[in-house]
Batch of 3 targets.
Target 1
Amino acid sequence: MRKPFMTGNWKMNKTVGEGAELVKALADMVWGVEDVTIAVCPPFTALQPIGQALRNTNIALGAQGMFWKTEGAYTGEVSPGMLKDVGCTYVILGHSERRGRFGVPDKDVTEELITVFGDNDATVNKKALFALDQGLKPIVCCGELLSERQAGNTDAVVVSQIKAALQGITAEQMADVTLAYEPVWAIGTGEVCEADEADRVCGVVRSTVVELYGDCVAQATIIQYGGSVKPDNIAGLIAKENIDGGLVGGASLKAADFAALVKAASSRA
Ligand code: 13P
């Protein structure tokens, strides 16, 4: 039986003070929940103090990205060792927003501008390998654009992103890898992927893991769904065979909402 995993991706939200307030309230609300893995991923600026605030709670800390070197002349980047130093267990890798793939068009953040800084299949793979090497657990994201879905390419996109990200990762290391299916068109749009379809694509992700590592590893791999997960749609999603939890943006910014998601996952466990 896979343990459900709910991760809050705060994205570019929360000052130190706001984040501390959020996790204080959240920690009280989810205290005692042992059958769900719970993590929050604040922005880099808040990791250290939030890590402190999470001590003696059942909530783990994660980061939203990292670089594939231990140290050096990489201006603006952060190493896995630095993330572990402030208490991180997890790191989100290959999020569509880091790949420059957006569900909501933004005239100030065009694909052309953002990809200069962004991830691609090759960097996601390098980061995943290095995270594992350094003892951080990657949450590796995949997902299709609306145009790719409309062209009937959803499965092909997801399979190719997963295969690229996992290249060189061993079956043993897969125990520390979480996969997240996040259809880009459902991120921050309020448009959730229907539970049956989300489950189907998470099933495609699992089949890809079967192909690469065999059934045993695939049955143990945690696969999250992400994209407008809210308290009012979590029950349908978490009930599905291939959905083991959520990678949650907007609803992780309010303690009561994220706690409700954790409790929904707990009732399935
Ligand atoms: P929303 O829950 O705000 O749609 O964001 C999902 C997401 O991208 C989490 O990583």
Target 2
Amino acid sequence: MSLPTTVPAAQQVSTLRVDVLYTGGTFGMVDRGDGLGPRTGIGTEIEALLDEFVRETGIAADFRYAEFDQVIDSANADPDTARRIAAHVRSGLGTTPPDGVIVVHGTDTMAYVGARMAFELRDVPMPIVLTGAQVPLGDPGSDARGNLHLALNSIAAQPGPGTFLAFGASLHPAVRASKRHCEDPDGFSTLGDFTPPPTPPALPAARGNGTASPVGLFTVFPGMDSDLLDAALRIYHGGVVLECYGAGTMPMFGSTTIEAVRRATGRGTPVVVITQCDGGAVDLGLYQPGRALLDAGAIGGGDMTREAALAKLAYLDGLGLSHTEMCRWMATNLLGELSNSPSTSWSR
Ligand code: ASP
């Protein structure tokens, strides 16, 4: 199933109930002389935009507005930000849940945070829609109003449960979204096919003490130092998304990089290989470096985006899975983040 690139017309809903959570980002920023920075206390301005939506569409609506305890430039999002926003969203659902939740967020990490929220909130039966802006609210040419209205329209159109990004003219499934332009009002792209499984697989229950280990992302490049990769694999011992070239290749430098991966998987650190390309999927059976990575214990990440792969790795790590379980579930399509079955062997 692919989502339409434009948002369908709003359905007839009697009273649309929407929770709006403001977490920061350019949407509400001001420049106080030292560059754009986050601003708190924008409830009245957001309320005015919500009222405009009601007047323009004739859809009666009931809004609840809240500001997150940390209103930030989303470049400062830490590994726990998405999990805390998801927990806030969940805690607000209560006994009379809204028709949907809008999270106003900075664009820089919206796809990372959105993807993590998609995993955290995968059991929530209503749409969660993140939105933001390239130009602050009130500035000439601002896209803040249009994006907030798009998010509202998306919820009124009842897209079904799931976490989405509403931006420019499109609604993107969070596990497929990536920021691909830093000025254009259509700054996000949906990468790959969004094909969620008809019945989401049941994951093992969380166990352990819930302490998250650090997970990280490492991009390969010509001339990369294998010591740098080795250091990344030691620091991010909870797991590393290895963003390789093309079908899943990287410089082998003899085999120093591969040996660093082998040592990491031997220590129980999952290494998930994805591609730097915007289309196609990793096929670790195709080239010698890919086969060497497989032999060293790496997991093929198929066509997952870097944001979804990192979010999934962190989410699964938080469940306290064993290394074997981690390998299995990283290679399983949970929410539509993975459309091809990644190659786990090279017998072709
Ligand atoms: N640096 C800003 C942020 O991510 C950019 C934006 O919102 O567009 O918070």
Target 3
Amino acid sequence: MNPETVTVADKTFKMMISAETISTRIKVLGEQINQDFADQKPVLIGILNGCFLFMADLVKEINIPCEIAFMKVSSYHGGMESKRVITEDYDLKMDVSGRNLIVVEDIVDTGNTMRFISDKLAARNPASVNVAALLYKPDAMEQDLELKYVAFEIENKFVVGYGLDYKGLGRNLNEIYQVVL
Ligand code: 5GP
């Protein structure tokens, strides 16, 4: 049995989304991408670090030809507050002009990070830029962004697990947990 509550660093978190529910939902997103991008050879661009489990599980559900790439940006710096300053740590190493891009992100909170990434990619003349987000906090959103694929809409509370961290810890949890304040 998975624990109902976990301690990560100095905070307690309660189970919010089970591993089974995550897996079932990702299968659905994968099927949608297979249909929407058949014959388009999309490039899935994972945003490190938080995307790594979602990206891996999503890609396993995609059975059309596709390429995989990564970028790394920092906005939270390990705490619970969203930073307005976004720093780019690792840029794409491929030419994406004329390509259909799917940005794979762990969570869209204020949307500032996704705005930064989308604008950066759009400047490179891709055929299209779409977003696949594991989690989306609609109440925190500050940007006018279209999120084509969202696995789960959640409350505006801090979460960890399944790739997402708190103070660098908790990424290895198989479920998603919400902070208990
Ligand atoms: P945004 O720019 O949309 O406010 O934040 C995006 C980034 O902040 C995400 O990629 C993620 O790294 C981090 N983030 C936002 N909300 C949470 C959260 O609830 N938990 C964790 N661990 N990270 C979050």
